[in-house]
Design brief:
- With about 325 residues, this protein is α+β, with helices and mostly antiparallel strands.
- It has 2 domains: about 1-85, Phosphorylase Kinase, domain 1 (2-Layer Sandwich); about 90-318, Alpha-Beta Complex (Aminoglycoside 3'-phosphotransferase, Chain: A, domain 2), CATH 3.90.1200.10.
- It is about 40% helix and about 20% strand.
- The protein has helices spanning about 45-55, 95-110, 125-140, 150-170, 170-175, 220-225, 240-245, 255-275, 285-300; strands at about 5, 5-10, 10-20, 20-30, 35-45, 70-75, 80-85, 120-125, 185, 195-200, 205, 215.
- Strand 10 and strand 11 form a beta hairpin.
- It is globular and about 55 Å long.
């Protein structure tokens, strides 16, 4: 077997997934001490953000992060390759108390990264407000399409009503967010993008797929780490661990504030994902409507907080 320094050529290449904007491969037997390496082909728009997170932010912070081995730009296409430590296959589970504490503590360790993350895109309230405005433009039009089912139109009407309620009270939300410290945010830390690595004597959490990252509030990340598939969390989401990791870097924070921040984060996430997912409603797939029911329920639940006027009286079929 040929090698280059202490790196070995892979004995096997596994294709893990492909998407419109890239693909991911597992290189078996390469890396130092024959460990696995993930080779990710990403469009430059997101790939450059992810590369900056590894090279300019995580590299100078005292946090456990997956290893970053470098990148290569393609010559003729707007794509680049990232080479990363293999984080394994064990996904983060919102149902696991140990995982929730591990995730919340790791996010708390990121607070204070605003200086290192200053070159990343804005992921503050203004970013999500643009998604809200986009939805308010698209929703009335898409409801008139004959290809959308009756159930789909009903869900969209509910989402539109909620979005108009959010828009009406956006200034109150922006005022609430103004004094919250900015930090590095992932923006999509669902279990598919967060794995847990376990050995005989340790457990570590690994966040990856940083293509949507930026400088903003920890809101979305906190909200997603405690977001189960159905209904509100019926458990302690681990926010005590977040406060413990934050320490004296945010003296005014308490559990009530962090819980409200997480609810705002769920709102932010839903605005973004619904805006991007509207074309899926043209596909006659059962899970699409299920997803939109979840989005509508999460949107309503996220507004049950003091920063908002009373939530409009709506009913959803779950």
């Amino acid at each position: 077997m040929k090698s280059r320094g202490d790196w070995l050529l892979p004995t096997e290449v596994l294709h893990l997934k492909s998407k419109r904007d890239g693909s991911v491969y597992r290189l078996i037997g390469t890396g130092r001490e024959s460990s696995g390496v993930i080779a990710k082909r990403a469009h430059c728009e997101k790939g450059a953000i992810e590369r900056a997170v590894y090279e300019e932010v995580l590299a100078i912070m005292s946090v456990n992060a997956i290893g970053y081995f470098g990148s290569v730009d393609e010559d003729d296409e707007p794509y680049l390759w990232l080479f990363l430590e293999d984080a394994g296959d064990r996904r983060y589970s919102p149902a696991s108390p140990e995982d929730r504490v591990l995730g919340a503590h790791w996010l708390g360790s990121l607070l204070g990264a605003s200086e290192a993350a200053r070159r990343l895109p804005d992921r503050g309230p203004a970013f999500y407000h643009r998604h809200l405005k986009s939805l308010l433009t698209k929703l009335p039009t898409i409801q008139g399409r004959s290809s959308i089912s009756t159930d789909g139109i009903e869900i969209l009407r509910s989402i539109e009503t909620l979005c108009r309620h959010v828009d009406k009270h956006w200034d109150a939300l922006a005022d609430f967010c103004e004094p919250i410290p900015r930090t590095l945010v992932h923006g999509d830390c669902l279990p598919k993008n967060v794995h847990v690595r376990e050995t005989a004597d340790s457990r570590e959490i690994a966040f990856f797929d940083w293509g949507g990252a930026g400088l903003g509030l920890a809101a979305t990340d906190l909200g997603l780490l405690a977001l189960p598939k159905q209904g509100p969390p019926g458990f302690d989401p681990g926010y005590e661990a977040y406060l413990e990791a934050v320490g004296d870097r945010w003296d005014s924070a308490d559990i009530a504030l962090i819980e409200q921040l997480a609810q705002i984060g769920q709102l932010f996430w839903v605005l973004k994902v619904v805006d991007k997912s509207l074309p899926d409603l043209y596909k006659p797939l059962p899970h699409v409507l299920d997803n939109f029911r979840l989005y509508a329920a999460t949107l309503m639940r996220s507004m049950d907080m003091p920063a908002w006027a009373p939530t409009p009286a709506l009913q959803f079929r779950h």
